[in-house]
Amino acid sequence: MPMNKLILFYYVVLWGGSRLRGSVRRWKQPVVRGTDWFFNVRVQPGFYEGEGKSLLRRYRLRMLATAAVEAPIAVALIATGHIPYLGWLILASAIAVHVNHLFNVEAAERKARGFATPGEDQPVSAMLVPLETRRLRDYTNRTVERLIVFGSIFSVAWLVRFYLDSPSGHNFGMVFGMPIFLLYYQLGFLLMKNAVVQWSAPIPKMQAEEHLKAREERRKLYLHVADASRIMVTAGLVLWPFVVGAPEARRELFFKAHFVVLMAMAVIFGIWHEMGRNSVLKAALRANPVRMPDLLNAQPAGWPVCYQPATPTLLVRAARGYSLNLANRFTLLGAGYLAGFFALIMLLRMSQ
Amino acid sequence: MFLTINTDDARAIYQQVADGIKELIARGELGEGTALPPVRQLAADLGVNLNTIAIAYRELQKEGLITVRHGSGSVVASRTSNERQQSELLRPLRTALTELVLAGLSARKIQEIVAHELQTVTKGSAK
To answer: Which residue among A201, A309, A329 sits closest to B47, beta carbon to beta carbon?
Structure first.
C-alpha cells in the first residue's frame, strides 16, 4: 500500500473514528446526569421543553462547527494530492476541538444558570484544599521511565554512529529529522504530564471524598494519556534505526512498517483510554456538581488573553468564557514550546 | 491532609489559611520538617491571589512556625526554634478568656471549655 494511502487510511478510519466517538460523547454530555441537569446546572422541570431545547441545539451546532470547518479542508487536501498535510490538520483540529468545547460548555452553562432550580445554584461556602506537595516523581513509574531513557539514548547513539560512519553518504534530515521531532514531542508530553500533576482546584466539603475520587480518576486518565504518548514516541525512536539502516531498496517498506506499528499502538492506547474514560465518568457521576465560589474577586478579563501576574491560574474568567493568562508559567512554557517547534521545522528545512 | 476554608467565616482567607496550618501543626499532623506546598500551588488550588497565600506564609514565618528555604520551599519549623516570648503567646489567650468572661460564663464552665479545646487542638500531637 503506498504511503499516501496509509495516511489517508489513518485519517479517515482512525482519526475519523476517534472524532466520531468524541462527538457522540460531547453530544450526550449536557444530559449525562439525566434530564434534571444541563451539564452541571440543576434545571427546573420542563427546561428541555422550553428554553433548554434551543440551548441544547445551539450547543450541539457549535460543537459540530469544528467538523464543518475541518471536512472541506480535508477534502481539498485529498483532492489536490496534499495528503501528508493531513497530519497537520489532525493536530490543528485536535486543538480547535478542545478549545471550542471549553468555550462552548462555559457559554451553555452560563445561559442555563438563568433556568437553574432556585437555591440549587448557589456557590458552596465550605471547601477543602489539599496540603500535599504534588511532585512529578510521585506520579512516575520508574520502570517505564528507565525504558524511555535507555531506549532513547540507545537509538540516538546508534543513529549518531551510523551517520558518522559516512557523513557524506547519509542525509542529515533523513537520519535525524524524525528523531529530533520525536524527542521534541517527548519533551512536550513531559510538560503536559507536569501540568496534569500540578492541576488542582478546591473541593467542596460536602461529598469531599467523592469529589476527590472524581478528580484523581481524571488526573489518572490524563497521566495515562501523557505516558502512553511518551511510550509511543519512544517506540517510534527505537524503531527508527531499522528504517534508516535498511537497504535502500527496502527502506520504504520499513518506513511503512514503522508507521503501521505506531498506528497500531495509537489504536490500542485509544481503546484503553476510552475504557479509562468510563471510570472517570462513573466517579464523576457519584459526586454531585457544585458551584465553587470565586475567591479571586478579580475583574473579568476583557480579552482572550490577559496578563495577571498575581493570579496563579492558566485561565482567568472573562466576560465571555475564559482568558489565557500570559503571566502563567505554563503559558510561557507552551509559547516557548510552540516557538521551538516552528524553529525546528525551519532548521530541518534549511539543513536539507 | 486538608485545609478547610469557609467563605461564611468572618476571617480573611489568608487568616484562615494561616490558622488552619497552625492547627495542623498543633495537632502534630504537620510534623517538624514537613514541606508545605509552594505558594503558587496553594494559591492555584484555592483559586486565590498569590499574595493571599504569601501573606499567610509570612505570618507563619514571623511567628516562627515555618522556615522558608530559598529554592526548596517552606517547611514546618522545629518547636525548639520557636523563640516567642511567653507574654506574647499569652496575649491571645487572655483576649479569648476575657470574651468568655464577658459572655457571662462561669469560671468552671470556662475551664471545661479550655480543657476540651486543648484536647481537640492537641489531638494526635506527640507533645
So the answer is: A201
Chain A residues within 8 Å of chain B (Cβ atoms): 123, 125-134, 198, 200-202, 205, 208, 292-296, 298, 309-313, 329
**How far apart, in Å, are the Cα atoms of B65 and each of A13, A130, B19, B30, B105?**
60, 19, 11, 11, 32
Residues A94-153 pLDDT 10s: 999 999 999 899 899 989 989 998 877 788 889 998 888 788 888 899 999 999 999 999
What average pLDDT score do residues A164-177 get?
85
Cα separation, B20 vs A207, whole angstroms = 20
Residue B127 predicted with pLDDT over 60:
no
Looking at the predicted structure, is the pLDDT value of residue A27 above 60? yes
What is the helix (H) or strand (E) element at residue B67, kind and residue range? Answer: strand B66-69
Question: Which of A43, A26, A206, A19 minimizes the C-alpha distance to A102?
Answer: A26
Task: Answer left, alpha or beta for residue A42, where phi above 0 means left and psi between -120 and 50 means alpha.
Answer: beta
Give residue-wise pLDDT tens across range A285-332: 999 888 888 887 667 777 888 888 888 888 887 777 788 889 888 899
Grid coordinates belonging to A78: 485529498
Region of B25 on the Ramachandran plot (φ > 0 left; ψ -120 to 50 alpha; else beta): alpha
pLDDT tens digits for range B64-87: 899 987 777 889 987 764 556 677
Q: How would you write B83-97 as a 3-class SS string?
A: CCCHHHHHHHHHHHH
Shortest distance between the Cα of A221 and any Cα of chain B, in A, equals: 20
Write the CA distances from B113 to B10, B23, B90, integer angstroms: 22, 17, 17
A224, A229, A235, A238 alpha-carbon torsion, rounded to 10°:
-120
Q: In this predicted structure, what is the pLDDT of residue B82? A: 54
Of B2, B8, B46, the CB nearest to A125: B8
Stretch (H or E) spanning A270: helix A251-286
- B4 pairs with which residues across the strands? A128
pLDDT in tens, B85-112: 677 778 888 889 999 999 999 999 999 9
Per-residue buried b or exposed e for A264-300, using 16+ beta carbons within 10 Å of the residue's own CB: ebbeebeeebeebeeebbebbeebebbbebebbeeee
* Rounded Cα distance, A350 and A347, in Å: 5
SS3 per-residue string spanning A45-71: CCHHHCHHHHHHHHHHHHHHHHHHHHH
Complex ipTM above 0.90? no
**Residue B52: count of CB within 10 angstroms of its CB:** 22
